[in-house]
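Continuing the series of single-chain predictions for the mutant panel. This is the parent chain; the variants come on the following pages.
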Amino acid sequence: MKMNDLTKRKIRLCVSLIANIIVAYIISMFIYFIVTVFFENGLSIAMERFNYELYYWIVNNRNMVVYIYVGIVMTIVIYRFISKYVNDIHEVYNALDLILKEDNETIKLPSEMNAFSDKINDIKYDYILTKKSEREAEQKKNDLIVYMAHDLKTPLTSIIGYLTLLKDERQISKPLQEKYINIALEKSLRVEDLTNQFFDITRYNLQKMPINKQEINLVYLIKQVIDECYPMLEKRNLNCHLESIDKVMYLGDGDKLARAFDNLLKNAINYSYENTTIQIQLEQKDEKIFIVFRNQGDKIPQYKLDKLFEKFYRGDDARSSSTGGAGLGLAITKEIIDLHQGKIYVKNDNAYIEFFIELK
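Parent structure:
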């Protein structure tokens, strides 16, 4: 509730109390007038005959009787006034319990509490959305743990199988031995990658990423990332071309930004057509830096574009063991860009998939 609404409500409360007191006073004076008339007409004689002692006491304590009556009337009026707001408080108390109910029923309060009612409903709907998001994230995480456990089992089975062959078969030729060793090494690296993804899931959920800013050359940083991904590019017959000036300086966390760029480049490698070129454009305009990662691949449906940066979301329905990740890469990339007060978004451009980054 806004401060001015709260002030208005306090004023209305005071005015209501004063009005009730004035009404009680008017009623009391009216009764006083009736009582006075009562003792000045023939009805007083009937009272005298009915109970002389009561009549005598009332006549001698007329003012006290009036004061007692006025006090009773005032007490009743004030009680009714207070009880009304006590009932309002009780309704608010019950409404607070309804906040925790995950239904679409609107919480209703007395009309004079509309502003407060709207605020409570806003809190309730935010709570429902938060709980729903938490459940969805938890379900996605549980599903991914099952998927990744399955993915871990597959390369481990291969590693055990090939190492067993090397151990048991003494007459295996040298070329075949090298082949088995290379396959076992490749599968071992896959196990390492999946293990690192498990650690990513834990870190992503248990802590906020710290940021340590310093002056860095983004051109040099991106070139480093490209060099580190060279084996992956070579394996899929891909090229990567950086279009930029020689130096673009930026105050940011080099390690975090390198991870963000690495995630984007690996994503482009995994989802690019073979024998194509991944393009990275880096330019500085005024106070802003613009970076674009562009690759040729299958068009991403709009419903997937809207979810790509959600944690644990995996865009590859087939969950290929060679490319399937924990669904954290792009989510972590977005968090890193957000920590630098930047923006990131994705769109399809004909046969191209483009990730746009804007840094200030």
